[in-house]
Amino acid sequence: MKVGYAGNEVGWMVYDKVFEVAKVIGSLGISQDNYTDLDYYPPVDVDLELQVMYFMAMVSIDHRLNVPGHQFKSMINGKVYVGSDLLWRFGVEKLRSDASFFTPRSLAGLKPSDVKDWLGDVWDYGVRAFLLSDLGRKVLSFFNGSALSLLKSTGGRLLGSGGFTDMMRVFTAYTDPVEKKTFLLAKFLHGRGLIRFIDVDDAQVAVDNHLTRLALRLGLVELEQRYHDMVTGGVPFTPSEDVNLRGLVRDAWKLVSVNAGVNPFALDDYLWRLGRSVCIQDTPKCSACPLRGVCNAYEKGVFINEHQFYPTYWY
Question: What pTM does this model have?
């Protein structure tokens, strides 16, 4: 570990780079989405209980969809959807055809075959069925069958004992130590106005492979040589190594958020879009990237990808 830099066994956060990136981010006029695109999200006039359950259910299964040898891809009404976009489009289609699917009682009784019938060619439909069933059963058992009751019990607090992140740990889908799904769900709920967190400035970005790749390429996080070699060699990280790396990435983006004066949820929206459409694996589109002037990878012409990690329901 470099002296004077925050880090752990896998690497360290580079403060000078954090400030450089934050300066650019702060100049971009970033704002949070309100998540009303009807291709992926419910209409705003749908019953509030159903809206919250929809987001809780969809986020609970929003993890790795494209794995080696298997791409989650389909055409709907003449438009090709891939990965997370396809998952959420399937969600909206199900909501339109059978809204009761997203009620806690319906989710609690789901079988793997039900999820396979719904999502089709998804590689781990059994895992996703379990996560949805677990979600439904626990909303019934711990929150009187009401997702709105869960939100109300937080008192509008995101963090702390009894806050939203604390409450969500009861659900298996939301047990990632780096809380990717938890903060993704919080972002959706806050942006839609289904809850307004009083401590929203204390939020974190939802760290997935895209935000990790961006942090490594920009140079916000640098890896110890052993772990750098594992990334470039395609050697999978263990769960604890993955948590250590994504924890560093989360801390780095938090400092960017603070120094840029940009809400963490708005920053997460921006970074996720950038990672999916511009700073992509192997062939990044640097000419379209407003961060290229502060990017180590662009300066050196060497573009590292994110680390490999065995497929998980965490992210």
Answer: 0.96
